[in-house]
TrEMBL record:
Family recorded in the similarity comment: Belongs to the mitochondrial Rho GTPase family.
Protein's cellular compartments: Mitochondrion outer membrane
Domain of life according to the entry: Eukaryota
Species of provenance: Oncorhynchus mykiss (Rainbow trout)
Gene assigned in the entry: LOC110537856
Name of this protein: Ras homolog family member T1a
UniProt lineage: Eukaryota, Metazoa, Chordata, Craniata, Vertebrata
Length: 159
């Protein structure tokens, strides 16, 4: 088992990565968000899985290319897979932030993405503003690394 677990947050600009990290740390929605949160390590004794978790914020600082990538999953998932070792599966958590702004669940949007990318371990709808599902989100990320379920369904292997 690894000694610590690194949890990088990537997304198209302004999705709320920095706000999510700051809400997790201060248990309060930040009124003024910097572009990027400082790297932090959540100590083992306050995480459910008892593993120190290093959280790394990536600023969108978006090029027009990233900004235009309509559904960010089509941009980020192939990019992450390109940059990682082919034999080591990187479990992904698909996060839908700003759930306070939508009345209905976005399951119709999420399910096709989960079917398309088998590396997505879990999806979670959350709100940095309402502090909804924030600690859960980082818990799912820990769990995905420590106890990956592996893909339950691999469309590409189907005849
Ligand atoms: P970049 O670093 O520029 O890529 O952006 P980011 O993904 O770090 O987003 P950031 O945390 O800077 O948030 C962008 C804007 O969305 C800010 O105005 C936040 O206040 C707002 N925001 C973040 N999370 C939420 C949320 O859960 N609900 C609502 N309503 N607004 C949010
Ligand atoms: Mg940011």
């Amino acid at each position: 088992m690894s000694d610590s677990h690194t949890c990088p947050l990537v997304s198209t600009a302004k999705v709320g990565k920095t706000s999510l990290i700051m809400s997790l740390v201060s248990e309060e929605f930040p009124d003024d968000v910097p572009l990027r949160a400082e790297e932090i390590t959540i100590p083992a004794d306050v995480t459910p899985e008892r593993v120190p978790t290093h959280i790394v914020d990536y600023s969108g600082n978006a090029t027009d290319h990233t900004r235009r990538a309509g559904l960010c999953s089509d941009h980020w998932i192939p990019l992450i897979n390109d940059r990682t070792d082919k034999d080591s599966r990187v479990p992904l958590i698909l996060v839908g932030n700003k759930s306070d702004l939508v009345e209905h669940s976005s399951m119709e949007t999420i399910l096709p993405i989960m079917n398309q990318y088998s590396d997505i371990e879990t999806c979670v709808e959350c709100s940095a503003k309402n502090l909804k599902n924030i600690s859960e989100l980082f818990y799912y990320a820990q769990k995905a690394v420590l106890h990956p379920t592996g893909p339950l369904y691999c469309p590409e292997e189907k005849e």
